[in-house]
């Protein structure tokens, strides 16, 4: 892996793109890290300038306290993105990352200068839909079973007690952040919103993903793929092709 070039602790830039390339900021899922998007950077660069957000409490930020308040997390990410706003920012988030990306988009829209250029929300229901989320209240064994159900974490890692001891605190904090998140009335976004979802996702139905439509005054579309919560790893070529096509226009 090449050494990331980024802005402080928050932003990872695994590949360098050209000065005119559209800039895509990627937000990880609960328990995820910036390196989840290394394949995205590898595939899209140099046509797209891919930045990945690194939340505290994982990988090289393991010693930092993870956030349990999603809005405070979005505040910090927005501040960290300030040096990268010399060109419009396209935002992509999966699962919890979709909501963090949405909250960052709201903040960017309020700041002087260009607002978000587009928002891609993957594997997450619209913010105004309701489900009771109690995953953060589970004990460790039940939390691990939840991870296995979503099939987003290597089974070998989940069987390693030392690795589990390292990842569980950040994972539990992330689940608390998204589980206690409550949407507040906010202006609709002025940028296009694209929702992506797996047709067998236990965490969001296509109808719930469709609810993102009400959060933009611009274009909206929904893409449904075969698969579960981590459909995007199985259908990575199709997802990357969609992003590349959209971002070059």
UniProtKB/TrEMBL annotation:
Residues 25-247 form the Thioesterase TesA-like domain. Keywords: Hydrolase. Gene3D superfamilies: alpha/beta hydrolase. InterPro entries: AB_hydrolase_fold (IPR029058), TEII (IPR012223), TesA-like (IPR020802), Thioesterase (IPR001031). The keyword Hydrolase applies. It comes from the Bacteria. Belongs to the thioesterase family. PANTHER family: S-ACYL FATTY ACID SYNTHASE THIOESTERASE, MEDIUM CHAIN (PTHR11487:SF0), THIOESTERASE (PTHR11487). This is Thioesterase.
């Amino acid at each position: 892996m090449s050494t990331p070039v980024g802005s402080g602790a928050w932003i990872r830039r695994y590949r360098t793109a050209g000065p005119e390339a559209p800039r895509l900021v990627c937000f990880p899922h609960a328990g995820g890290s910036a390196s989840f998007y290394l394949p995205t950077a590898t595939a899209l660069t140099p046509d797209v300038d891919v930045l990945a957000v690194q939340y505290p409490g994982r990988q090289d930020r393991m010693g930092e306290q993870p956030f349990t308040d999603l809005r405070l997390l979005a505040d910090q990410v927005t501040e960290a993105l300030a040096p990268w706003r010399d060109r419009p920012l396209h935002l992509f988030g999966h699962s919890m990352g979709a909501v963090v990306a949405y909250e960052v988009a709201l903040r960017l829209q309020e700041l002087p200068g260009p607002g978000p250029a587009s928002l891609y929300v993957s594997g997450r229901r619209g913010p105004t839909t309701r489900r009771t989320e109690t995953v953060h209240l589970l004990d460790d064994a039940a939390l691990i079973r939840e991870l296995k159900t979503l099939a987003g974490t290597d089974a070998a890692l989940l069987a390693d007690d030392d690795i589990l001891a390292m990842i569980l605190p950040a994972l539990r904090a992330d689940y608390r952040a998204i589980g206690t998140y409550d949407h507040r009335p906010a202006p609709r976004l002025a940028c296009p919103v694209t929702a992506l979802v797996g047709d067998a996702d236990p965490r969001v139905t296509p109808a719930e993903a469709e609810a993102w439509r009400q959060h933009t005054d611009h274009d909206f579309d929904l893409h449904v793929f075969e698969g579960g919560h981590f459909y995007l790893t199985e259908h990575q070529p199709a997802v990357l092709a969609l992003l590349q096509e959209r971002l070059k226009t």
